[in-house]
Design a protein that fits this description.
Strand content: 5-15%
Order of helices and strands: HEEEEHHHHHHHHHHHHH
Mean pLDDT: 85
Radius of gyration: 24 Å
Structural class: mainly alpha
Distance between the termini: 66 Å
Strand order of the largest sheet: 1-2-3-4
Low-confidence stretches: 1-13
Number of helices: 14
Helix content: 55-70%
Shape: globular
Length: 365
Amino acid sequence: MTDAAKDQDVPDPAEPTGVPSVQRDEDRDALHILPLSILPFQTPSLHRARLIKNARLNSVVELFQGQGIGSGQMDVEELAKDYGWSGKGRKRHPDLVMLRKLAPLPSYDVYSLRMLFRQEGIEVNAIEDLKLSDSKVTELTSYMTQFTRPLIQEIYGKDDLNIQTFDDMVKLFESPDVEMVRKKLDQMAQKLRIKVRDVPKFLEDYGDVFLSLSYFRQCLDALEPIIDEFMNSMDEIRDNFQLKTNVNMMNTCDQIEGAINELMAAISGRFETFDRYTNGMWDDLTADRFKTVKKFVEEYHTTIGGCLCALTVKMNAFAVRFPSPAVGGPIKRGEFIMSEMKQGIEKVREIQANAPKIETVEWAK
């Protein structure tokens, strides 16, 4: 039993500290990793652990990970036994209660977590822990342009050469030129039909909503070349003399290919819908119209996050094992499909099956 398991008394639930946790950027920005340091766990060893989705799409607690030492993983119930949290007559440990809530979540990206934590009544140590890293935000600049450029032109037109980016617009309100700030605030408030004091909140919400779409689009773009390579491998497996008579193998290839194609089509369809609603918003931009788009996008955060998380975990597992077409032939790839890719594939379909139906937004004339 670990040192953390020796305490037999169940502690009171921890209070949020309000202090952001120390996270690696790659953990903060991942779809499939949840650093447990962002939550008020009582057990000290959990502060250094991560909840991750493994290649079979199961949630496991990763207690350590590193080059040369591998990854030390346990599922939640195994961890509970090791830490002495299980047993008849024992009061449920608050850390176990928390982990049981976290394990079934479909994605650990920051946008899905905001929605899911709110639904589950889970508090983080600091709200900053549910934001993308600065480096990721910088990466997404090119994706954000398609959302921020129309806002800039709608509010200020093409005459104000000092405002080129969304950050320029936000920084305007930090200018020491009080008169200029007041003028810009009035201009934006009139255009959006809101009060001047509501402009900063509008900008914060606007930036966050479209940053989320930019983040998910980048995740999808990163997947496409890996999926193409995976599909090529499936064709090679089907054409292989030894494998094409293996009925189970052929059926598994069809099942996996069908699930991936369905998921990609569903994600692409939602992005097309987002684009349509966003374009409709510009016909007569108001804060209320933006709120409609914001609500619509946020309702699908968990669905898109879950779909992208499942695809990313599966495709990354394939890419790590077969980093180039020259690594591993059809036989090796077929074995990997049967042992790893097949496992948990039904969860991919479940995420999509449980997704809310896309509703139609009718813009008021």
